[in-house]
Design goal:
- The chain is α/β, with parallel strands linked by helices.
- It has helices at 34-41, 60-67, 82-86, 95-107, 142-152, 172-194, 207-211, 224-239; strands spanning 3-8, 13-19, 22-29, 49-54, 72-76, 113-118, 121-127, 133-140, 199-204, 219-220.
- The chain folds into 2 domains: 3-105, Nucleotidyltransferase, domain 5 (2-Layer Sandwich), CATH 3.30.420; 109-224, Nucleotidyltransferase, domain 5 (2-Layer Sandwich).
- It is built from 8 helices and 10 strands.
- The strands form 2 sheets. The protein has a 5-stranded mixed sheet with strand order 3-2-1-4-5, with helices on both faces.
- Strand 6 and strand 7 (121-127) form a beta hairpin.
- Helix 4 (95-107) packs across helix 8 and helix 5 (142-152) packs across helix 6.
- The chain is globular.
- The chain starts with a strand and ends with a helix.
- The model has no long low-confidence stretch (mean pLDDT 94).
């Protein structure tokens, strides 16, 4: 029986069936009926383990409902930090970042990792060569920076993330585009230069966008969070055999 792993983020829900640590087809949903979306996934097949990582609070009745639709429900949110603590990670860390750390430890065992997640926020997490989580930082993500510029300055419309970026802006739009994207590239490069011995891992919606603008060797793992959740699910399966 396969497992179901779900990451409920700030702007979207990503889900996938997993067999062991192998991720199958992924599903993406943007809307308010999150429980209905998950219910649709398990309508024809009951997962052995369902792991839900969420930055949003799920109503207790929804949690009970989903618990009845699987063999074992593992909930990871700010009120359920058991998995975080079990893996030696600081309990304040959001569950999606916890999952990224777990997956990176597995993929790059014995190597230090600098993990960038490009979403609503850009998070940067650090794992040393022994697998110990050292800590991490956050700052506004790329689209969040464009939205903030538009919201807090009357001069700037809401621009899209550009396909090409000028080195120096020569108009209101290109100065905003260059300032935001180039600023993020400087920020990213600063972390890479500071921890030169680390493997660099990019994940999240803008991972490929920034990876192709870097001169360094980058590992892009688009489903890093889901892979970490799949590892957690697989641990439960193995422990119940």
């Amino acid at each position: 029986m396969p497992n179901l792993v779900i990451d409920i983020g700030n702007t979207a829900v990503k889900a996938a069936w997993s067999d062991g640590i192998t991720i199958g087809k992924t599903f993406r949903y943007q809307g308010e009926r999150i429980t209905g979306f998950i219910s649709g996934l398990v309508e024809k097949e009951r997962p052995a383990v369902m792991v839900i990582s969420t930055v949003k609070d799920l109503p207790e009745n929804d949690i009970a409902f989903l618990g009845g639709r699987c063999g074992k429900l593992v909930l990871m949110d700010k009120g359920h930090t058991e998995e975080t603590l079990a893996h030696g990670i600081f309990p304040y860390l959001p569950p999606d970042r916890v999952a990224s750390v777990i997956a990176s430890r597995h993929l790059f065992k014995g190597k230090g990792c600098t993990i960038f997640d490009f979403g609503t926020v850009m998070s940067v997490d650090f794992v040393d060569s022994t697998g110990r989580y050292s800590g991490g930082n956050v700052s506004p993500g790329c689209r969040t920076r464009f939205k903030a510029l538009n919201r807090y300055s009357r001069s700037y419309p809401l621009y899209d993330t550009p396909d090409t970026v000028q080195e120096l802006g020569t108009s209101l739009q290109t100065s905003a585009e260059s300032g935001i994207v180039t600023g993020l590239l400087f920020e990213i490069q600063g972390y890479i230069d500071r921890f030169q011995e680390n493997i660099v891992v990019f994940t999240g919606g803008d991972a490929i966008y920034f990876a192709k603008r870097m001169k360094n060797s980058i590992f892009v793992v688009c489903n890093l969070v889901l892979m970490g959740l799949a590892l957690i699910a697989d641990e439960y399966v193995k422990n119940t055999r």
